[in-house]
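Appendix B: a complete holo record

For completeness, this appendix reproduces one full record from the ligand-bound portion of the collection. The bound molecule is 2-acetamido-2-deoxy-beta-D-glucopyranose. The inputs are the chain sequence and the ligand SMILES; the output is the full three-dimensional arrangement of the complex, encoded as structure tokens. No fields have been trimmed.
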Amino acid sequence: MHTLLLHSTIFALFAIFIVNIGLAVGQNSAWNIKQNPFPKAKRISATVSFPSAKAKGNVTLADPYQWLQNDTDPATIKFVADQKSLTESFIKKCTSVKQIEQSVRDAFNYNDYSDMTFFEDAKVPFWFYSVTGPNEDRKTYYIATPAEMEVARKTNFAKPPGKKFLMESLLSSNNSASIVYTMVSLDHTLIAYMVVDDGADTGSWYVRRLDSPLVQAKTRPPGGEGRLPDVIPYVYQDLRWTLDSKAFFYTQYSDNGTIVAYHQLGTPVDKDITIVNPDPDPANLWYLDYSFDGKWLVVFSAANTDSKATAYATLLTGQKLSDKMKWISIVPTRDLSLFSPVGILDGNWYVVTDENAIDRKVVKVKLDWTKAKEVTNLSQLKGRLNFTDVIPNRPFRQLNLARQTDTNKALVVYVENGKYVLYIFDLRTGKQLQKILPDEKSSPHAAFFATPTNKYWTLAYRSTVSPVKIFQVHHTETGIQTKLLTAQAIKGSNPDDYDTEQMEAISKDGTKVPYFLVRHRNRPSNTSSSIWLHGYGAYGDIDNLFWDERYFSWLQAGTGRGFVWAGLRGGGDKGEEWHIAGKNRNKPKTFDDMVAIAQDLIKRKLVNKGQINLEGNSAGGLMSAVVARQAPVGTFGAVMPDVALLDYLFFYTGAIGPANVNEFGDPAIPVEFDIIESWDPIRNLSPNIQPPPTLLTLADSDDRVVPANAYKYLAQAQHDHPNSRNPLLMYVSTSSGHISSRATTTTMVSLAVHQQCFLELTIGK
Ligand SMILES: *[C@@H]1O[C@H](CO)[C@@H](O)[C@H](O)[C@H]1NC(C)=O
Ligand SMILES: *[C@@H]1O[C@H](CO)[C@@H](O)[C@H](O)[C@H]1NC(C)=O
Ligand SMILES: *[C@@H]1O[C@H](CO)[C@@H](O)[C@H](O)[C@H]1NC(C)=O
Ligand SMILES: *[C@@H]1O[C@H](CO)[C@@H](O)[C@H](O)[C@H]1NC(C)=O
Ligand SMILES: *[C@@H]1O[C@H](CO)[C@@H](O)[C@H](O)[C@H]1NC(C)=O
Ligand SMILES: *[C@@H]1O[C@H](CO)[C@@H](O)[C@H](O)[C@H]1NC(C)=O
Ligand SMILES: *[C@@H]1O[C@H](CO)[C@@H](O)[C@H](O)[C@H]1NC(C)=O
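The structure of the chain with 2-acetamido-2-deoxy-beta-D-glucopyranose bound, as generated:
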């Protein structure tokens, strides 16, 4: 192995002399451009023109591969086929395909527990949860006793405890139905469950008795056999049972927009009482908040494109339900952003807003019934109520979610320095009571509450090294107690064997950038060990510490490997301030930050130059392509831009055009064009700079970032480097869309095998 490397280094130096490329990068031993020349791709004389401030006028840029934007053109089809066979001829040299595939499959092999809820107030307390088993694509819901759960806890939930209650696979004849929400009635005898058919925008609520399981069936009518006759169609989210468990409030699409209505069990749906007439704008959806004492109903409407909302409340006692009731308006005009509703306590509605609070705060509003007016159309109401701060804005820490629990408290989730930190606050005083699970370095993905008054609830996490980790949270006299219910582990691994260290790099402008390094505690690592460096850095998102089968299988399979999550500016790691610091005209800061992290890893002797794999998806794919070019030559042994925007000047008007422009800049504005041109991946390729080994991964049906991004970028890179010393390749996932819709296990395994084989052939095992 050593001899080979030495040999190839000499060869590379020789090659440098001949072609006069001023770089000292080792020749890749598996790669041989002579044996596998790049496919020829014609160049046409198309151009694009943009106004530049620097040039004081328009600049015209060549766009020689514009023809690749036509997916149905036979020339494009041939280009893609040729690239695929080039990639396969390289990947074929990977000697560990079988082991890699097995390790990726193993990483998909776990019980995905969810929805875990403890109904402590029931006459006979019980647990309710769901599980999707390995190789299953549909959930099964279970009901278990506390004793059964405790036994399961001692074996880390190797088998789902309790009795099967409801199987999604029995809810439709074509196995295309899934349950997206469930609501247990307050007397614990009934459950409402919302079923959505794959790909549909709306679903239906069905109701069944909790003592009427559906675990086998002769027929598969919608909603399954043995349910009650009540069906509410055209629904999208909310349902709230009334205190007597004989009726519920719900939201629904109608011909003229969304409505709020009331259904009495056992009565025909067409007799349901509409209490809120359609919002005039069909883009606005109604949502509900209902006080646990059954007195108040708050309805608020928000567009699905932003969080600007209107909100109204009604007192349910002393009024007959109809579309002509007394209401008060809380926010009558759409001038306030309302995020998660927190709950209703002492006649106050608590909600999260960003009004004068860049990182959001919890406010409350006294529901003043003296202002109530009888109306048939809520938009006739004009008064606005005053909000009072309860939990004020905390700079550089974004309030992600707040939710009422134990009657007068709230779970509040912040993002602090790249990680989620959970607190309990007193809702009446706004005082912080306690931090929960302060040492947890993972990403919470859900919390499950039975009711706002419950003393027990659960928190579900995913982490780099465990797909599911669930804690029970218990409010006691002396404060919160937490108990681990399960941390699902992948065969051959133990989540406790991994350390997650938080570190900081200093970016070009002196800013400290957080990152996390995950490594096996007992496996020796040294500077020859490799590191997978992942980042995103856009839209204020947090992209840290989550579970991904592809990442974990790679981390698990080799000695000394490390996985790094980068907290780049542009993301939300340090509040909305951090987002703004890396968006639009500040976009270059995102790239500086990643360069700094890569250099920090090398400086700390955690990894050698050339042993880092730089990877990111979507906006992170763009980032990785830019950083591959901007970091000192030789920093990266591999670069994997995934579903990446690589030709920004051409595709900024794509499917999410306006959002992109806000995030990355508008090339129609001269100053912004100049900044974009300085980083736009395809326009910064150069014949004088050999790109690192590059594998572009994309999805054939991606309409968010169209495949032509990768085609054009690759064609240009290959044209610039006809004798490339490194592989410059692409891999296409078929029948796949942008990230989340690239969902089947088979597609993911194939993608992972290509990525990890590429790494074996570039960075090494
Ligand atoms: C300059 O570029 C813009 C944007 O592409 C275009 O609309 C405009 O027509 C161009 N102007 C000239 C004089 O070419
Ligand atoms: C794409 O190519 C096909 C086949 O050559 C052609 O029929 C079609 O007009 C082209 N589409 C565009 C938008 O140029
Ligand atoms: C499955 O069947 C339902 C009717 O039971 C139908 O509405 C739906 O379109 C089908 N879905 C798929 C993905 O075939
Ligand atoms: C929808 O609005 C139209 C026009 O205002 C009206 O004629 C129709 O009855 C409404 N439909 C419903 C279901 O309210
Ligand atoms: C309610 O009032 C608004 C504004 O006056 C109007 O646009 C809308 O059509 C009304 N809705 C109904 C259901 O009457
Ligand atoms: C809201 O506060 C403003 C200023 O403090 C005050 O003028 C106004 O009367 C208050 N409105 C209500 C409805 O309490
Ligand atoms: C360094 O670690 C690699 C595995 O990451 C191992 O193969 C190699 O033997 C180690 N080298 C030394 C000098 O310990």
